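ligand=5-amino-5-deoxy-1-O-phosphono-D-mannitol
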Amino acid sequence: MCGIIGIVVSKGAIKERLGSVLRKCLKNLEYRGYDSVGFAIINWNNELIVRRSKGKIDEVSRKLGFDDYDGHTGIAHTRWATHGKPSDVNAHPHIDCTKKIAVVHNGVIENYQELKRELLMKGHVFTSETDTEVIAHLIEEYKKKGIGTYEALKEAIRHLKGAYALAVIDKDEPGKIFFARNTSPLVIGIGKNEGVMFIASDIPAFLEYTNHVIVLNDGEIGFITSSQVFLEHINYGIVNVNERIRVVDWTPEMAKKAGYPHYMLKEIHEQPLALSSTLAGIGSEAHKLAELIASSKYVYLTGAGTSYHACLIAEYLLNDLVGIKATAFIASEYGRFRKSIARNDLLIAVSQSGETIDTLMAVRRAKNKGAIIAAISNVIDSAIPRESHIAVYTRAGPEIGVAATKTFTTQVLLLTWIIIKAAEIKGELSPKRTSEMLDLLKKIPDIVNTTIRITEPSARKISSEIALKTNAYYLGRGLAVPISMEGALKLKEIAYIHAEAYPAGESKHGPIALVEEGFPVFFTILSDEYKDLIIANIEEMRARGAWIITVAPKDHEKAFSISSFAFKMPRLEYWAETIPYIIPYQLIAYYTSITRGYDPDKPRNLAKTVTVE
Ligand code: M6R
């Protein structure tokens, strides 16, 4: 939620104007929120210029002339509103009464009302409804004691409760960006050229300029100049910066659209590559997790949204292939298991970003109870992996589209690999059977490639009819249920069509009441024990006039003969079908969104990474 970028440059270090670099970097963070945009620049005359407005980056930067501003120190922000509606006054940066201090923030200050009351009593004047504005006034207030901006920020931090990633500039101390992190992500980018330093919410922001990064931890605070990083922990003192620098192997191209009209389409098409990279990256940590699973009595899995759907697939496979009791739960519903999660239970936390606050909080709570935490994530060194005992990475490359696509299929591939290995360690699968299954997984990138090629024209064709609908059901049995849930989520979030997923057998217990002539019902059929049983469910829907769209193995003639539209899929073993069978649903959602005139990369009300509970 919300994207932050800050840059300090020395004279001549970059050719472009600072405003233009800030705008470009901010654009790479647009997936984090896009309801309003703003920047603050200290120009070469050491004047502070602040511009902000409601709207998306392209429109706002044209309106405010972002690219025309130059200077040596700048911060910018793209917002996803939490406190105060999207508006010009609520857009960041927020400034203090002296108009010297500018603050951008990602997170939520839980005690802002209390702080605001105190500051109002001291005569401060507020101009927005945001929680962020208190930070600018708090720093101003502490500076009155005669201390510098950094010390004032430290004082302010001690009074803040909640989540924050902060970047602050002060006209009184030009050439520095002060920062602090608690729960919300923040990374420093060490410019390849001397004399340029970055701070941002996420690495893709500055990838064009550097891949040398420091991922900040909770409780860390400091400042950057154009040539120096000062970093300390609020409680434990100074941090050795050199020991913290990491080199990431992402390229800027990986974070750009590469000729596709949208990131989402690019990321759908990138899946064969991403899946190959997941397989190639499997190493000792994945083996360790398989061993941990094999020695566990009970396994919990948690995540949010798409990552939760990957957990559901893993839950099913843990039961089916390893014979281990497993329960997947939605991270924000941790309370259901508060009492039962015990010391040494294994909790697998799945999160693309590694920063989703619901998942992070579930991890922290389970860890406090003595559980062993394993993270499956796409972002190296993000909060969830860092707070886990073991971290295994999907290595899908940066995902910018708000709708998760390649990160879902790579999560499922990685979890399936680990679970097969755990089954072998536990003696549930022979070494021969294990290597047969792992061989099939190795073919998945190619199978997905073919699936995209074959299903894309049909998905595009059917989307013009789906675009006219207002509701849809996604039904399946067994492992096809989480696939249906993921298909329905995709259609909801980017095409804004109400879509619900149910176990097909459950549909006759209520949902079928809504079905009338032309009501779209998607059936997912895998090569499992349910493949014939589900025919009766299709017939029930058909008898009530439903428009049946079926995604099933290509030789399932019976299913196709009673469907209005068919996606003929490769026949594999059921547990390997989960990955290719989601592809038509990703494509249907994408093309339906386009047909309805929406931007699938920036669905309304959503942000790529949800860092508020
Ligand atoms: O980064 P995470 O995997 O933790 O994100 C979890 C969800 O917010 C995410 O999957 C969300 O549901 C996506 N928009 C789905 O496409």
